[in-house]
Amino acid sequence: MSESLYFQIAETIRQRIFSREYPVGSQMPTEKELSEQFGVSRPTVRQALDTLAREGLLMRIKGSGTFVTEPKLVHESTSFVTGYREESRKKHRILRTRVVRLEVEKAENEVALALKLKGSAKVNRLTRIRHLENVNGNAPVVYTTVYVPFSLFKEMSTLDFTDASLYEALDGRGLSVVHASRRLEIVMPPANVAAGLGISGFEPTVFISSVGYMKNGQPVEYSESYYPASRSSFLIETRR
User: Whole-angstrom Cα distance, residue 77 to residue 236?
Assistant: First the structure.
């Protein structure tokens, strides 16, 4: 089998999906129909369909057929120190944000530990729900809460983060994040998070906790973010 042949077929089908010739939710032609259409063997078609299924563009259901699915949204924040707004801008997507909560509070134990604060220290707490226009039917893509030491950013609670970028706000005050340590795990979401994401409390989420550090090594932000596992994937870059 020519490897380039099934890649070419996969690319043709991929473009038909992106152009909505094969719309999301529709059933694909059978392997036999596709093999006749492309003039190739069924194993070649099968390998092309398997490639697209691994990409999340197709779902193969035994006994029913192959269906076009909404591809998972690829997040690159696990590979680079960047804000979600900047990541969206680079991909030419329009990010919408709803601020759920913005206030000053006493740092809880886990937050104080992550930010290396004393028990009585205060933090700014910012909770946001974010979605991308015309992606996954405008469903929320992340429910995120970030904590910033009050002593470093005293006016933070007075700002409007509906459109503003937190990372840009930090940059403007000499508090730039230059390094981040992140932990990723699969968890069932708390009830308020599930409601905010518009999912069942029994649907798993990808939970990422992150600590951002300034150039001098001081922690400047700690965040907890929940992504719906069914429509999220993550790019992780490693270098030797």
Answer: 9
Neighbours of 45 (CB within 10 A): 25
Is residue 6 classed as helix, strand or coil in its secondary structure? helix
Given the structure tokens 């999912």, which residue do they identify?
A: 199
Closest-CA residue to 55 (of 87, 10, 21, 94): 10
Q: What is the pLDDT of residue 69?
A: 82
* Chain-centre distance for alpha carbon 53: 20
pLDDT tens digits, residue range 42-69? 999 999 999 888 777 888 888 888 998 8
Q: Which long-range contacts link 46-51 to residues 24+ away (Cβ below 8 Å)? A: 47/1, 47/6, 48/6, 48/7, 48/9, 48/10, 48/13, 49/10, 49/13, 51/6, 51/7, 51/10
Of 21-30, 165-174, 191-200, give the lowest mean pLDDT range.
21-30
| Residue found under tokens 């886990």 | 110
Q: To which H or E segment does residue 73 belong?
A: strand 73-75
pTM: 0.71
Radius of gyration (C-alpha) of the chain in whole angstroms: 22
Q: What is the pLDDT of residues 148-181, one digit of tens each?
A: 999 999 999 999 999 889 999 999 999 999 999 9
